[in-house]
Amino acid sequence: MPNETIHNPDQYMTALRTIIAGGRKRIGLLLGAGASAGMRKSDGSYPLIPAVAGLTTQVLGSLNGEYQYQIAELKKELAPKDDIETILSRVRALAKIIGPAKIHGLDGPQYATLGERICEEIGTIVNVSLPPSGSAYSDIVTWIVGTARDHPVEIFTTNYDLLMEEALERVRAPYFDGFTGGRDPFFDPVTVSNNDLPARWTRLWKLHGSLGWSSNDKDEVVRSGKDSAKHLVFPEHLKYEQTQKAPYAALLDRLRAFLATPDTLLISVGFSFADAHISARIDEGLAANPSASVFAFQFQKLEKESCASELGRRLPNFSVYARDAAVVNGSAGLWKVPDQLPSKDWGPIRSSYWSRFEDASPNEFILGRIEDFARFFSAARSAQAFAAQQTQLAEPNTALPAEAPVA
To answer: 99-140, pLDDT tens digit by residue?
Structure first.
């Protein structure tokens, strides 16, 4: 990382608050697995839904009694990468190719059963509810419904859980997820493509499927209203193939169409950009439309966010905001907060994005953590947020949409 390059978080977050406080900008959110994993349970413990490592431990633990030998042998075979995603990929591959032959004591149909069991366990683990006392998703919904909008907020998520649906329904905020109907709601790609519902309806696009989706007797995806996990695109080797079919192709096309629209901003949190089929569409969209922007809020330090950093270095309209550093206008640099506050009221505002991750750690950029990210959004319309609007925080690399004034 070039030592001479530094980035001032005060500048970028002041401008971002200006954008998200108004209702004129076309804004989308991209929520990855880190969003659900970063929220607390009702008892205050973490995580609400485990990330891949925790998911692996829980799923394999529940199956270990029946499949102890197979799990042990598959882990040896796949080491050092033996997480649940890799194991599921291997199980489904064996189910398709070995037929009546046996590997590690199971034949093809038995591996198909094991794959279904893994999917059922994943579905059980992600089938949770939001804490009753509030959550990060509730804060995001507060921001969504807090102003009249010229354009709907579009939420793209790879998560299978129903947490965002729950947050929207708690405050009776209307949303559209691509399905329509009463008895067996069916997917309507025309409405998804045209995007012609009122702006007050949030769009919720489940890019990898969702709990409650299932197939009917015509092999069409319907929304059952139940918590089943029969039609999920799990992160394994079939993902690319599956996402070329309805409804997944239409949802990914919606992401591409969103980025093709002039003057749009996609803000991501909890997403690593390791999903090649999603990152490729973002890459193509930003390259073809310089007026679109992506702000990627990453939980880890920049050197560990390799997928996001690579996009940021190639695309000037892709900005990465990591814990210790940022990539803006293709230039990577450490965060540096000026000694002097922009105004006398700026201390509480700065602490909303520049604080400690742990008690003994130095201050870092914290908006890669979903709960801080959501609070920042929900508080965007507070009077203090604009206390320094007239203060000049000039820095050459703004990487902001044209609408945003540099405060």
So the answer is: 999 999 999 999 999 998 998 898 899 999 999 988 999 999
Give just the sign of the alpha carbon dihedral 169, 172, 177, 178.
positive
How distant, in Å, are the alpha carbons of 11, 12, 292, 388, 403 from that of 406? Answer: 7, 8, 18, 11, 10
Task: Kindly give the residue spans of alpha helices, DSSP state H, lying in 79-135.
Answer: 84-97, 108-126
Give the Cα separation of 297 and 30 in Å (integer): 10
What pLDDT is attached to residue 213? Answer: 87
Torsion of CA 83, 305, 210, 250, to 10 degrees: -130
Q: What is the pLDDT of residue 340?
A: 84
Question: Any idea which residue has 């190639």 for tokens?
Answer: 314
Angle at 49 between CA 78 and CA 35, to 5 degrees: 100
For 309-356, the DSSP string reads HHHHHH-TTEEEE-SSEEEETTEEEEE---SS-SSTTHHHHHHTTEEE
State which amino acid sits at residue 62.
S
- Domains of the chain, residue spans: 6-47+131-386, 52-126
Q: Taking a C-beta distance cutoff of 8 angstroms, is the pair 197, 154 a contact?
A: no
Residue-level pLDDT at 398: 39
pLDDT confidence band for 391 (50 / 70 / 90) = very low
- 214: which strand partners? 222
- CA nearest 381: which of 406, 358, 349, 355? 349
